[in-house]
Each structure stands twice: as structure tokens, then as C-alpha cells.
TrEMBL record:
<keyword id="KW-0413">Isomerase</keyword>
<dbReference type="InterPro" id="IPR036986">
    <property type="entry name" value="S4_RNA-bd_sf"/>
</dbReference>
<dbReference type="GO" id="GO:0003723">
    <property type="term" value="F:RNA binding"/>
</dbReference>
<dbReference type="InterPro" id="IPR006224">
    <property type="entry name" value="PsdUridine_synth_RluA-like_CS"/>
</dbReference>
<feature type="active site">
    <location>
        <position position="144"/>
    </location>
</feature>
<dbReference type="Pfam" id="PF00849">
    <property type="entry name" value="PseudoU_synth_2"/>
</dbReference>
<feature type="domain" description="RNA-binding S4">
    <location>
        <begin position="20"/>
        <end position="82"/>
    </location>
</feature>
<dbReference type="InterPro" id="IPR006145">
    <property type="entry name" value="PsdUridine_synth_RsuA/RluA"/>
</dbReference>
<dbReference type="GO" id="GO:0160141">
    <property type="term" value="F:23S rRNA pseudouridine(955/2504/2580) synthase activity"/>
</dbReference>
<comment type="similarity">
    <text>Belongs to the pseudouridine synthase RluA family.</text>
</comment>
<keyword id="KW-0698">rRNA processing</keyword>
<dbReference type="GO" id="GO:0000455">
    <property type="term" value="P:enzyme-directed rRNA pseudouridine synthesis"/>
</dbReference>
<dbReference type="InterPro" id="IPR050188">
    <property type="entry name" value="RluA_PseudoU_synthase"/>
</dbReference>
<dbReference type="InterPro" id="IPR006225">
    <property type="entry name" value="PsdUridine_synth_RluC/D"/>
</dbReference>
<comment type="function">
    <text>Responsible for synthesis of pseudouridine from uracil at positions 955, 2504 and 2580 in 23S ribosomal RNA.</text>
</comment>
<protein>
    <recommendedName>
        <fullName>Pseudouridine synthase</fullName>
        <ecNumber>5.4.99.-</ecNumber>
    </recommendedName>
</protein>
<dbReference type="InterPro" id="IPR002942">
    <property type="entry name" value="S4_RNA-bd"/>
</dbReference>
Length: 329
């Protein structure tokens, strides 16, 4: 790990960069600078817009000239990986919906939505290569690398801002499917448990990773679990999140003592090893299968569903066959 010091930077805001808060803009531009330091230089007036001090909530405009002061930062040497899933990712085959404002994909498991944490490229980087004429392509939300299912991409900043507003106001409804260990003794269950991020260094790849814990001082998080189907020692659940915290579903599932099948961070590792040895499933059983929201331009209600991949379908079929055989015995 080395310490570097950057030079003074001057950035002129383009049309595609305008209409966003300056703190959010700086977080994207200054990847190696912590959020605390970004807010510190804003508070002290070291960041200037058109030679004037601004508050973090200031929305930058086209042609604004931003001065960023010299900054010290740590550089961690990363082992950059390009996963096989990324190499074989077929954009066209994954499209669920597309127009000139939006792109909705059925993201496969095993591919990151963006680069970082030792990954050299993700879906958004792939899309920018596939759509070189689109000057603006941004993720509306994120999915964990192992999670599959619906992923929204905005093709215009105005669309991104509208969808972010809908997310904040709870007007975008997302449903997930998860398979958990154990037979749930409830039909419906709501979990309200605050979540807090914890950073730790991954010793093998030499970069920081985040894990989320339940903490009374954390951020509000609320998850609804609804039983769809019960098997001998597993349960298929539909999940609705009322907040969008990192790893929320995974941590709340662990909290109610029903960890998600093949979750290597919050799951039952012994049971995962048994499943992997039998070569039944090699990914976390977490899928974003349904989304409902108002189209930002047409104002029509969109309802998109993403089918499960072959691995998950095959595993569910095996569980159902096993249950039928037990009933016949």
C-alpha cells in the first residue's frame, strides 16, 4: 500500500454530468478518497465551483468549473480479475426491455455490475463497449455479483434522476426469490433490523471488502418474507424490500436463522460444501425476478419479470421430485 498526493484538478461539467449533487459527483470521480474526506474538503471550502464555496447538496450545472484541491490517498495494489462469466456475457440475450431511455437486463450470476474490488470490468463497462454511440449509460441500482435477475440502466441523466426519485419515494417495487435452509414455520414474516457496514481487508487479493452486520446504530432496514413452497429441509421465499441496503436480504435471512442456500458470506458453509460436493448448485440462490414502476418518459406502468436461470430451475425440480418420492414412500 502506497501513499500518493494528487495535483490540483479543474473539471468543466458536461451536459451528461449536470443536475447531480456535487458530493455524489465527487464520490464517482475520486475513487481513492474516502467519503469522510470528500465531505471534509467540501465543508472547509477547498472544493470550489466557479471560484465559490458550495454545500454538498449543490447541484452542478453544465459549464460549471470545479476546482479539486491536492489530495493524499492510499493506493492498494489489486489483483485485477476478469471472470469467465464476463467474457461470455451476451448482452443481447439478456435484454428484457429496451427503448431510447431505458435498458433492463436479466443479469446472470457471477458477473459484477461494475468494476472494482479486484474486478477489472463489469456489466456497465461491457455495455459502454456494446453501445459506443450512447454518451450516457449509468446503473440505476446495483446487484451483488452472485445475484441474478433484473438490472435497470438509464440512457439519459434525466431518466436516472427520475428513477432515483422513484426509488427514494418507494415507488419502484422489486420482488426477489430466495431458497433458504430449513423449513420456515411462518407464512409471512417482516424483519426490521438496522444494518451497518464493516470493512475488512481480504488477505488473498489484498483489497478491502465490506460485510454488513445488524447494529442498533445502523441504518433502518425492513424486509418482508413470504413463503411460496416448502421442501424437506429448505424453503422457497418471495422477498420484498422496503429499503435498499447493501446485502439486506442476505443478512436478514441469516438473522431469522434461515440463511440463503450457497451464500458464502452469510450462509451455512457446511451445508454449502455438501451441495457443492454433489455438484447440484454452484451459486447463491438469490434472484431479482420482478419489478414494477412508472416509465419516466411515457408515464406508463412497466411490469417486467426475469426468468430463473437453468441452474436454479434444475435444482428446484430436483427438490420437488425428492418431495414427491418421499410422499410415495
Amino acid at each position: 500500500m502506497k501513499i500518493f498526493k494528487s495535483l490540483v484538478q479543474f473539471i468543466k461539467i458536461s451536459k451528461n454530468e449536470s443536475s447531480q449533487r456535487i458530493d455524489n459527483f465527487l464520490k464517482k470521480k475520486l475513487k481513492n478518497i474516502s467519503k469522510n474526506n470528500i465531505y471534509k474538503i467540501l465543508r472547509k471550502g477547498e472544493v470550489r465551483v466557479n471560484k465559490k464555496r458550495v454545500k454538498p447538496k449543490y447541484k452542478i450545472k453544465t459549464q460549471d468549473l470545479i476546482r479539486i484541491p491536492p489530495l493524499k490517498y492510499f493506493h492498494v495494489v489489486k489483483q485485477q480479475l476478469t471472470c469467465e462469466s464476463y467474457v461470455h456475457f451476451n448482452v443481447q440475450a439478456s435484454i428484457l426491455y429496451e427503448d431510447k431511455y431505458l435498458l433492463i437486463l436479466n443479469k446472470p450470476s457471477g458477473i459484477a455490475v461494475h468494476k472494482g474490488s479486484g474486478i477489472s470490468s463489469g456489466i456497465i463497462e461491457k455495455l459502454r463497449n456494446v453501445y459506443p454511440k450512447n454518451s450516457f449509460l449509468e446503473l440505476v441500482h446495483r446487484l451483488d455479483r452472485g445475484t441474478s435477475g433484473i438490472l435497470l440502466i438509464a440512457k439519459k441523466r434525466s431518466i436516472l434522476c427520475n428513477l432515483h426519485k422513484q426509488l427514494r419515494e418507494g415507488k419502484i417495487y422489486k420482488d426477489y426469490l430466495i431458497l433458504v435452509h430449513g423449513r420456515c414455520n411462518f407464512k409471512n414474516k417482516t424483519v426490521s433490523a438496522p444494518l451497518k457496514k464493516k470493512l475488512y481487508l481480504n488477505k488473498n487479493l489484498n483489497f478491502r471488502k465490506q460485510k454488513v452486520l445488524i447494529d442498533k446504530n445502523g441504518k433502518l432496514a425492513k424486509t418482508k418474507f413470504n413463503v411460496i413452497e416448502k421442501f424437506q429441509n429448505m424453503t422457497l421465499l418471495k422477498v420484498i424490500t422496503e429499503t435498499g441496503r447493501m446485502h439486506q436480504i442476505r443478512v436478514h435471512a441469516q438473522h431469522i436463522h434461515h440463511p440463503i442456500v450457497c451464500d458464502d458470506l452469510y450462509g451455512n458453509l457446511k451445508k454449502k460444501e455438501t451441495i457443492l460436493i454433489n455438484k447440484e448448485i454452484n451459486r447463491i440462490f438469490l434472484h431479482a425476478f420482478n419489478i414494477r414502476f412508472q416509465h419516466p418518459n411515457t408515464l406508463k406502468n412497466l411490469h417486467i419479470t426475469a426468468p430463473l436461470d437453468k441452474i436454479l430451475i434444475k435444482y428446484l425440480k430436483k427438490l420437488r421430485n425428492s418431495a414427491n418420492l418421499k410422499n410415495l414412500a
